[in-house]
Design brief:
- By secondary structure, the chain is mainly α.
- It has helices at residues 8-29, 35-63, 67-80, 92-99, 110-123, 146-154, 156-160.
- The protein is globular, with a radius of gyration of 18 Å.
Length: 166
């Protein structure tokens, strides 16, 4: 999600790919034996479901729209695809929670995510990218330079006014 939004189609593609994952993730987390995890997931599902439905609807409009909108949304899917594999990687925090049976591993969500994404793309004759080298490292603190610009903007107020009360 640290990738720039670019044009509207790229923003929609990014939201669709990630909110599809989040919807599946929070649905599974809502069944956790941990009251805290379950409560957070149940509260989050409402917001994520909105983003999923909204981005899916726009993806279908753009993919089924003009030739230009179809080309742009396909290019956006192609460009962002290399970042999707990392959603299904485990880090130490996830491994600990999984070993305590508090959550299921995110790699177990891949088939459900893939089916939802593929089915949506097929509706408007968009193609799932093939033979893509997946990027990794975000969960280990390795990010693109784009994250630096986002952090600078998000941290502007607290750095400028460190004693401000909100």
């Amino acid at each position: 999600v640290e990738q720039d939004n670019g044009h509207f189609g790229k923003t929609i593609a990014k939201i669709f790919l990630y909110s599809t994952f989040q919807k599946i993730l929070y649905t599974h987390l809502s069944k956790s034996i941990s009251d805290d995890i379950r409560a957070i997931a149940l509260k989050s599902i409402k917001e994520v479901d909105y983003h999923f439905k909204h981005s899916r609807a726009w993806l279908l409009r753009l993919g089924g729209g003009t030739e230009e909108s179809k080309v742009k949304i396909q290019y956006s899917i192609d460009e962002l695809w290399r970042f999707t594999g990392e959603m299904f990687e485990s880090d130490d925090v996830e491994k600990n929670l999984t070993s305590e049976n508090l959550i299921t591993a995110s790699n177990s969500y891949y088939n459900e995510w893939s089916k939802t994404v593929k089915d949506t793309l097929k509706e408007v004759l968009l193609k799932e990218p093939e033979n893509v080298v997946m990027l990794t490292g975000g969960k280990k603190g390795l990010h693109t330079e784009k994250l630096g610009f986002m952090l600078a903007e998000m941290q502007y107020l607290p750095r400028t006014y460190p004693n401000a009360k909100w």
